[in-house]
Design brief:
Chain lengths: 444, 444
């Protein structure tokens, strides 16, 4: 008899799981249920959709329900999973259009319910003009608001990747922008010195950066009009909250599925939960950190795709493994590129790892090339083993993707000495004769 | 007593050696003699100097004679080394300005005499309008000629990196350009399928590409006016010869220093020749291929700098090693980026290595980003060990430097399986959610 795979969630991890399961087993029955209206969309493109660089929401959609149907995958949107019965092997759903409930049996289940924006419990947080950016509808709502109200002062709360990308994209609307961060530096997953370079750049472009600022309340009658914090009151006409996400793991927890760090669903390297036949992947799940072997919660689109693929393959009888991540990340804000991988100094200190760190400033191309930009490369090496543990890069004109060289070296467990004289590609438009990555390695 | 280091040659390897020797030993006497007029210049920038993207020759100069003097390094230009007496430890020089000869004793010697363009022995090869591009004076001569004669048809002989870069830069002069290659494909150090993509691109931009064409003679009275080949006669008003270089190793050979492949000076991983106290580095010397352990001749600016640094350190009492190269290379022609590292299929076949190869076509950024360009990635894996052996990339918008990820993986001896799910950096302006390098790795 044909087996039946049920997938809950249809953005990155869920659709990857379904597509891979289909390739693994052409016969299996595969059904995917999505709570949202849109499926299989590139959520990481939303800042550029708001900014107008991506002109139509359709461009964010990777595959349609019809395309999945052609592969023999049935996808239903606007359907919320409300209960998992692991004994009986069935899931209860609520059809959000009709209001009807129904049940669906499964042989194997992939939980890819994603995450939702963390919403602080603050007075006034529900005022109009305060937004999250997580779904296509969020993006549409923000665009409509910006066009209708033409705010002159916008506050972005949270100095992570989304916050930075939104700085660039809100600038298209001519707003005065404040980037507000409760910690002492923006980009919390980088070290303060590197984040400081980005902060200076933002300030040079007219962005106000507030650090160590903790919000207490939003003021306004119907529309948000001011923000109260430990630093005082700031008038504001638009607020974007980008202070992180929390996993949609409640339905799993209720079903007796074990949770891990940050209340995310605990999985092993085969994406298996503690209950046989039930897999999880994406922003609702934990992931293994390759350097520490620790369970971490670093929700990322790339990881969701990789975990989804492995979950789908295994849920269809395969035997795939996803070993984990290095916490690699990259973002662009205007001309500046910002990237990191592995451990930063803070993470080494927290773990008691003895390390040596060097930072260099170089150029991304030969000094006589017009496309040459400044680049700062910070490397962190474990003191005893001389293994490369981490890299951080900020700069212009092709700086950012150089982080992949460091991610590759860390993945293979390379020592600094193995790669110090590597044969990296050089010609004047692409690099100085000593690539800045090599210049940094040569400091050790 | 202070030791004395003599360096012959003052472009990439020679100046790197002198500078590193000075850092290694602040006391040593260091003298550098250069045959040319210009020292310490970025020869790889010459195509862009011809094309006018680099407006002044001074921009190509890294360090001046005065700057070296400040470091206690005496540099003399226009001085040709004519004999090395390894018994007595002295070098005879000819001052090209005065015509006088003199001798200079050394304790240690670094031979960094570079290479010269290979000049085929063909009738008419000395006609005016036929050029090489190796030195700053070559660049100046070409610019003068192009401005004075405004040729309408230009032929570039040799489809390697310099030839490709000169296509782009000659286009600034509005010439009709023919790229001529005696082999069956352009870019001889890549495979035919990848070179074919570049050829198609060049043709789409109006460049005529002639392959399998062997020149027999150049015609013309004073200025070159036509080219005779196995394919017939072609009218032409400008010819650039870029058919490779040969090492300036004669002076070493005469002194009893052992030569290796391509008549280049044989050195070990400490840059030592067979004669104690004599080192060599740069385009006059061989280099070790990291994959095969074979001695190869792949003259490159990056390698010259690395070898020079090691030669200088060791010649000043240090103990440095340069392990070798992967034959990594990169070039840009108009919007197209072309890069390679490790072995290509041809090289595997020649060595009898059993391999598996896959090529994918992908995008350099998320499909909805304006900066997203096509990219082709070809990977070669050793069949038994599953080690990555080589990579070739062509494409647009940030395609080329992705080769460094492959160079890093090959340097560390990574198998395809170790890096197949690597945590490379993703955000929409930089990559699709599956970086094309990972897409290619996932084919194995």
């Amino acid at each position: 008899m044909k087996k039946k795979l049920l997938v809950i969630g249809a953005v990155a991890a869920g659709t990857s799981a379904a597509a891979k399961a289909r390739r693994q087993d052409p016969e299996m029955e595969i059904k995917v249920y999505a709570e949202g209206e849109y499926i299989s969309y590139g959520g990481c493109g939303l800042p550029y959709f708001v900014g107008g660089r991506i002109d139509k929401k359709e461009k964010l959609l990777a595959r349609s329900i019809e395309e999945f149907a052609q592969q023999g995958i049935e996808v239903k949107a606007l359907t919320r999973a409300i209960n998992i019965d692991t004994e009986q092997g069935k899931v209860s759903f609520l059809n959000l259009s009709s209001g009807h409930c129904f049940e669906e049996a499964y042989d194997n289940l992939v939980i890819a319910t994603g995450a939702r924006p963390y919403k602080p419990d603050l007075p006034g947080v529900d005022l109009k003009g305060i937004f999250n950016l997580r779904t296509i509808n969020d993006g549409l709502n923000i665009k409509n608001y910006l066009h209708q109200y033409q705010p002159r002062r916008a506050i972005i709360i949270g100095g992570g990747y989304i916050g930075l990308e939104m700085v660039e994209n809100l600038m298209q609307y001519g707003c005065q922008i404040i980037l507000l961060e409760r910690g002492r530096q923006i980009i919390p997953n980088m070290d303060e010195d590197m984040a400081g370079i980005v902060q200076q750049y933002l300030e040079s472009k007219g962005v106000e950066v507030h650090t160590d600022e903790i919000i207490r309340e939003f003021g306004g009658t119907q529309l948000v009009s001011e923000l109260h914090s430990n630093k005082g009151r700031t008038p504001v006409e638009f607020v974007l909250m980008s202070v992180g996400v929390q996993p949609n793991s409640e339905i799993a927890a209720q079903a007796g599925i074990e949770l891990g760090i940050n209340q995310a669903i605990r999985i092993n390297d085969r994406m298996e939960t503690n209950i046989q036949g039930i897999y999880s992947a994406g922003d609702c799940a934990v992931v293994n950190h390759l350097l520490s072997g620790e369970e971490v919660y670093i929700p990322m689109g790339t990881t969701a795709n990789k975990q989804g693929k492995v979950a789908g393959e295994n849920a269809a009888g395969g035997n795939a493994v996803f070993k984990g991540v290095l916490g690699t990340g990259i973002a662009r804000v205007m001309e500046m590129e910002i990237a990191r991988t592995g451990f930063c100094e803070k993470e080494c200190l927290r773990r008691g790892i003895e390390y040596i760190s060097h930072t260099i400033k170089g150029r991304t191309a030969a000094h006589y090339c017009p496309a040459s930009g400044d680049i700062w490369v910070k490397l962190i090496m474990e003191k005893n083993t001389r293994r490369l543990l981490g890299g951080q890069i900020v700069g212009y004109n092709g700086a950012g993707k150089r982080i992949d060289v460091l991610a590759t070296a860390i993945t293979t467990g390379a020592t600094v000495d193995e790669i110090i004289e590597m044969d990296l590609a050089y010609s004047p438009p692409f690099s100085p004769v000593w690539d800045p990555v090599l210049v940094a390695l040569n400091q050790f």
